[in-house]
Write a structure and sequence with these properties.
This protein is of the alpha+beta class and 264 residues long. The chain is built from seven helices and twelve strands.
């Protein structure tokens, strides 16, 4: 099988911080997944009167539709292309599903952020704002968005600040291995990235966005009519990112960080 991503898409990933893959998994798998998720929401898909919350978060799902969606040939190839063969761990499940419903209410979780990945020995593991990211992206090789429903501009698509991974890399470098907490990173509201272009993660069910782990993104309220089903799991690393490789065999994830620091 050939490469999933062409050279331009890989270059876009390095510079913009994400790449969109259409039909990364089938609409049939998406439909099977939604059926499982609907049952766990406690809501009736045919009765909007039962959709009483702006967002319902459901836990980790490892049933076949989700396992298969995470392991399609095109995605496995793309993981190799972006992270490097042997440098990532296969997923047997997908992470939390924040299911967003049409609602006038503030969902309460729509702030700009990056997905942090580890807690230090001195941090409170139950305080999510004390979780950290570091320059080697400990604990995360990619941020991924799996669209299990078709998402239009009205359906609470994830907002992305294009190229913001560059700003975060520069912010993390002085903190070294210890990294910075989400509280540290968010202290000024991610002002360093405020001038970046904003795009939204729209697409048909079966679309996947593969994002640099430092990409700044945010949820938003749902102004449409159809609930939004999306998974946002990490791709876990088999080894830490390396910013100094003797053989120069840098993955695009590493190239993006190196480029950010070189042009700082």
């Amino acid at each position: 099988m050939g490469n999933t991503l062409d050279s331009k898409q890989i270059q876009d990933f390095v510079q913009k911080g994400f790449v969109r893959i259409d039909q990364a998994f089938s609409s049939k798998l998406a439909e099977e997944g939604r059926t499982i998720l609907w049952a766990d929401t406690g809501c009736d898909p045919n009765n909007p009167a039962t959709w009483t919350k702006p967002v319902i978060r459901l836990g980790n799902y490892g049933q076949e539709p989700f396992r298969q969606a995470a392991n399609t040939p095109c995605l496995l190839t793309a993981f190799d292309q972006l992270v490097g063969p042997g440098r990532w761990l296969p997923r047997t499940s997908l992470g939390t599903f924040p299911i967003r419903f049409p609602s006038p209410d503030d969902p309460g979780d729509a702030g700009w952020h990056i997905d942090v990945s580890f807690a230090s020995q001195d941090d409170d593991p139950n305080d999510f704002l004390s979780w950290r990211a570091n320059i080697n992206s400990k604990g995360r090789a990619l941020l991924m968005l799996f669209l299990f429903s078709t998402i239009t501009e009205n359906d609470a698509p994830t907002r992305i600040r294009v190229g913001s991974h560059v700003d975060i890399a520069r912010q993390l470098e002085p903190a070294g291995e210890a990294g910075l907490t989400l509280r540290d990173l968010a202290a000024n509201g991610f002002q360093e990235t405020a001038g970046r272009q904003v795009v939204t993660a729209t697409g048909e069910a079966g679309t996947v966005y593969l994002c640099h782990p430092f990409l700044v993104h945010a949820a938003q309220a749902h102004h449409g009519s159809t609930p939004r089903f999306l998974a946002q799991p990490p791709l876990l690393p088999a080894e830490s990112l390396q910013l100094e490789r003797p053989n120069g065999d840098y993955s695009p994830v590493e190239q993006a960080i190196r480029l950010a620091l070189a042009t700082n």
